[in-house]
Amino acid sequence: MKRIGVVGGGAWGTALANAAAAAGHDVTLWLRDPEAAARLQDTRENARYLPGVPLHPRIAVTAGASDLAEAGTVLMVTPAQTLRGVLADLGAAFARQAAIVLCAKGIERGTDAFMSDVAAEQLGAAAPVAVLSGPSFAADVARNLPTAVTLAAADAGLAARLAGTLSGPTLRVYHTDDVRGVEIGGAGKNVLAIASGIVAGRGLGESARAALIARAFAELMRFARAYGGRPETLMGLSGLGDLVLTASSPQSRNFAFGQRLGAGASPEAAAGGKLAEGAFTAAALVDLAVARGIEMPVAEAVAAIVSGGASVDGVIAALLARPLRGEAE
């Protein structure tokens, strides 16, 4: 089944639909809102999220769940906190044994579940599930600028097949069987990108921001080891690569959110009605760290600020007052 389904018509979903079509596939792009789907099918431009980027001719836009039944691969490009509900609504429409590729980067609030665990609960443990992550802005992918990402599946053969399926002229997809490592890199970097934005917004200087990123990555590595992720995965595209991108550019919603927090905005005002996955993931990441006795002071600081439980200046003072230790500790 050569057709690819894409669930979610935001910037990232539209960009991945364009990339899959450019790789030679017929694509069904599913939107929840029938009026929005009809408008996008007619105008062939997602003016709200990717203005000026034409929709590839091989993409058909729909709001009908049954239209996804012909897809052999389905990309789930919905926010992490809505994945469970969307799978509950659409899962029965997927073709039997269709490969489900999770493209959200986060941890579910309330359950502290990784996205692959949410999918297993909704679709069954035997469902062929993969995770796509890596340093990628939707605008770059949609405009066919060179981008490399990582796809992980527990079945290494499935991972390799899907990587070949989704790779195209400008999108290069590497593959691995380290699902947990890829998930941790994608979810954790969002939280740490908020911290980097806070440092930038507070005007603490590039030296401080570089130190923050390095120490944040060290705690992400500790977390990954404790939860079964491989160090080499975290050193790759879905870990360090994604952190470098999202912790240094205002194009990143998480960095921009943190930047506004650092400049003095409240969490509500800093969000500005836009989704910053790291704001939802921070508390879950800290919960999981505490459960395994992992020190994550940067993630804890972000969670405290986002919840309104601590001020930016108070958190900075507390971090600088931490006891000195060996760098490898």
Characterise the protein shown here.
The chain has 329 residues and is α/β, with parallel strands linked by helices. It folds into 2 domains: 4-177, Rossmann fold (3-Layer(aba) Sandwich); 186-320, N-(1-d-carboxylethyl)-l-norvaline Dehydrogenase, domain 2 (Orthogonal Bundle). 49% of the residues lie in helices and 12% in strands. It has 15 helices and 8 strands. It has helices at 11-22, 34-43, 83-90, 115-123, 138-142, 156-166, 179-201, 206-226, 231-234, 237-246, 253-262, 267-271, 277-291, 297-306, 312-320, and strands at 4-7, 27-30, 59-62, 73-76, 99-102, 129-133, 147-153, 171-176. The protein has an 8-stranded mixed β-sheet with strand order 3-2-1-4-5-6-7-8, sandwiched between helices. Helix 2 (34-43) links the parallel strand 2 and strand 3. Helix 7 packs parallel to helix 10 (237-246), helix 7 (179-201) runs parallel beside helix 11 and helix 14 packs antiparallel against helix 15 (312-320). The mean pLDDT is 96.
Short description:
With 329 residues, the protein is an alpha/beta fold. It has 15 helices and eight strands.
How are the elements arranged and paired?
Layout: E1 4-7, H1 11-22, E2 27-30, H2 34-43, E3 59-62, E4 73-76, H3 83-90, E5 99-102, H4 115-123, E6 129-133, H5 138-142, E7 147-153, H6 156-166, E8 171-176, H7 179-201, H8 206-226, H9 231-234, H10 237-246, H11 253-262, H12 267-271, H13 277-291, H14 297-306, H15 312-320
Parallel strand pairs: 1-2, 1-4, 2-3, 4-5, 5-6, 7-8
Antiparallel strand pairs: 6-7
